[in-house]
Design a protein that fits this description.
This protein is mainly β. 9% of the residues lie in helices and 44% in strands.
Length: 379
């Protein structure tokens, strides 16, 4: 009898221990699962006069690199080896480009003639093209960090007409494609001599600040206020207009297309908008909008990790909703790069480009997150 009792008590204790183990608190010292690929997202924060360095494995800000008082950093470009980052400073006093050396994240400044409107790396990675407010594109040599030549607008000797160059992006044919602020037209020039090779083309909007080439090099997608133009590069003509409205039609109040980014495989193009919300997803085979990723306000850019498993959206935040439509789009941009009156902190939205679903919580930023860069971690 006593033996049976002891056996019964032992069994009951074993059951209790097993039940307790099933409800035990898991150990807290297990390593956290990575939220994304190992690498760093460098994000300019316009009103912070800083560039945030975000660890994309943990989605946390590791450091903020100061670019200098009133520099207003907005757009980034990198050397081919990823060891140097060039920062387009929208600030007026004095106009400059900041160079960040990785991995130390130390900085130095390159003076330029007038406030830059963008900054872009050449195809071979040896030069940086800087379109500026002062009717000029300056070319910086990556090896020496000095300005080695300038293209002026107008320049009757080379056939260039007067306008402010807003974009200067080298195409698959190695020509430098220049988008213009006031007319919205695009032309292509020789990146060495400045001679006009492709004449100015009307793209259907104005303020052509950014454009993207298809992966096969046959098409150019030009963003402007307030449409996305599909250009046949071989025949140098606009073949289609993609509208930014929710119903896909043209309306005078459509928001302006701002920055576009192609997925690493070239199958989709993501377009941010000013004067509205959400990021447009375009199928590059059909040249149609196939979806949207929600944002709280205007967004400046989308950037992808090298392996294409994560996308990062710079969301300026809900305070930008006070500037709806294309007429207030320039006012929002002007406020963003000057005083920042009434603007609140932004965020980075992380998503999976394979499903276009948002992943985890947004990453808080200072006021005015700009156009970032994703780079692999330097060893």
């Amino acid at each position: 009898m006593n033996t049976l009792c002891r056996l019964g008590i032992s069994s009951m204790l074993a059951l209790c221990v097993a039940a307790g183990a099933a409800h035990a608190t898991p150990p807290t010292d297990l390593p956290a699962q990575p939220l994304g690929p190992a690498g760093e997202l460098y994000l300019p924060e316009v009103q912070g006069n800083t560039v945030a360095v975000i660890d994309t494995a943990t989605n946390t800000v590791q450091q903020r690199v100061p670019t200098g008082p009133d520099t207003k950093p907005g757009v980034l470009a990198a050397s081919k080896d990823g060891k140097k980052i060039y920062v387009d400073n929208f600030g007026f006093t004095p106009p400059s480009v900041t160079v960040i050396d990785r991995p130390s994240n130390t900085t130095r400044s390159i003076p330029v003639e007038s406030p830059p409107l963008g900054i872009f790396t050449s195809n071979d990675g040896k030069e940086i093209f800087v379109p500026e407010v002062g009717f000029v594109i300056e070319v910086i040599d990556v090896a020496t960090d000095t300005v080695v030549r300038r293209f002026r607008f107008p320049d009757l000797a080379t056939g260039r007409f007067p306008d402010i160059p807003a974009g200067a992006i080298q195409g698959p044919d190695d020509l430098l494609y220049v988008g213009f602020m006031n007319t919205g037209m695009i032309e292509a020039i020789d990146p060495i001599t400045g001679k006009v090779v492709r004449p100015p083309l009307i793209v259907g909007g104005f303020g052509t600040f950014w454009y993207t080439f298809s992966k096969d090099g046959s098409k150019l997608y030009a963003n402007s206020i307030n449409t996305i133009s599909v250009i046949d590069l071989r025949n140098w003509r606009v073949t289609k207009l993609i509208h930014t409205s929710a119903d896909g039609n043209y309306h005078p109040g459509n928001p302006g297309a701002f920055v576009s980014t192609l997925t690493p495989d070239g199958s989709k193009l993501y377009v941010t908008v000013f004067g509205g919300k959400d990021v447009l997803i375009i199928d590059t085979a059909k040249d149609e909008v196939i979806g949207r990723i929600p944002t709280t306000g205007a967004s400046t850019a989308v950037m992808f990790s090298e392996d294409g498993t994560r996308g990062y959206i710079s969301d300026v935040g809900p305070s930008t909703n006070a500037y709806p439509g294309p007429l207030l789009d320039p006012l929002l941009f002007g406020n963003l790069v000057t005083m920042g009156v009434g603007l609140t902190p932004g965020q980075v939205i992380v998503f999976d480009p394979r499903t276009d679903q948002i992943v985890g919580d947004p990453i808080p930023t200072k006021v005015g997150p700009g156009v970032p860069l994703w780079l692999p971690t330097l060893q």
